[in-house]
Amino acid sequence: MKRAHCTGVDPTHLTVVVGDHIQSGDEGTEQIVKVAEIIPHKDFKMSTFLHDIALYRVKTPLNFSTPYIKPARIATAETKTTEDMVVCGWGAIRENAQGSDVLLKVGVKLREDSVCEKAYQPTPLKYAAKGQICVGAGGKDSCQGDSGGPLHTGKNTGDYTVVGIVSYGIGCASWEYPGVYTKISAYLDWIEKNTNGVAVKGG
């Protein structure tokens, strides 16, 4: 799963790299597979970033028998998102900086839906609590280059469940403009329909 707002490319020109940690080096843990198809949500709108979710279908199966690559559990409606969560990515560590060469993670906190609704109401971007999650306090959040990355629970328990996808924000880690994440549990029916139930039942 990825965000939909960067999917307007020919999938035959894309590859997916999994098991990677340091982008500049070959660690021997990576698997590289070609993309067969990109399935963006049919209601995605670039003007508002609503329904910012897409599925990537790869040409060959991934090997999950290694310790470095495992399928992710995805959130259901019952998954709690009130605990501290973690966002991962190779994005910048501050606004307008270069992306990181090493995979980074940071603990982030859930914000009230009303905070994001108020923050983004004057902008063309829209926040809809039904399908989005409001996350991040000042100084800790995703940044440029992290779009499409996972937001997951388990910071304190190690029981990782992916609950969101990095979608948008203004600036980086701003108290005034929290990060907005696509809420995976709101799209379970759509995911199941487009994966023949494999992603939902297998997660």
TrEMBL record:
Q: What InterPro entries does the database record attribute to this sequence?
A: Peptidase_S1_PA, Peptidase_S1_PA_chymotrypsin, Peptidase_S1A, Serine_Proteases_S1, Trypsin_dom, TRYPSIN_SER
Pfam families in the record, alphabetically?
A: Trypsin (PF00089)
GO cellular-component terms in the record?
A: extracellular space
Q: What is its main location?
A: secreted
Organism superkingdom: Eukaryota
Which Gene Ontology MF annotations are present? serine-type endopeptidase activity
Q: What is this protein called?
A: Trypsin-1
* Native source organism of the sequence: Folsomia candida
